[in-house]
Amino acid sequence: MALRVKIWLTGKGAHGFLGEGRYRLLRAIARQGSLRQAAKELGVSYRKAWGDIRSMQEQLGFELVSRQRGGSRGGTSCLTERAKKLLEAFAEIKTELERTAKLQYEQKMKPLMNDETRRSNFRHARQLSSKH
To answer: Which has the closest alpha carbon to 29: 15, 17, 44?
Structure first.
């Protein structure tokens, strides 16, 4: 049994605009040097990927991706310096929240789990895994 934490940034109207999925998209752009290749790597359409980038840029008020069109090898995309800093900050916050959540779970919830609860959860998990 473990405690899981999900984080995302919200903007106007409380809609999330930067969470794990879009974080992975930005990381893939950094790795691939191409929005199209990043979308392909993640199994999403180019249109969705570009829409996600535009949505984040509108919410944040600054460019995340610098694009260069065309050429014989196609265009390129790279993250702006602010986007790189945003990713770094997001990763640091996520890591710290996960560490804190684990510590709080270990201190406050785990002691409440008696041996029978642990055995029961283990049996249930084994049953689920044997079905797959």
So the answer is: 44
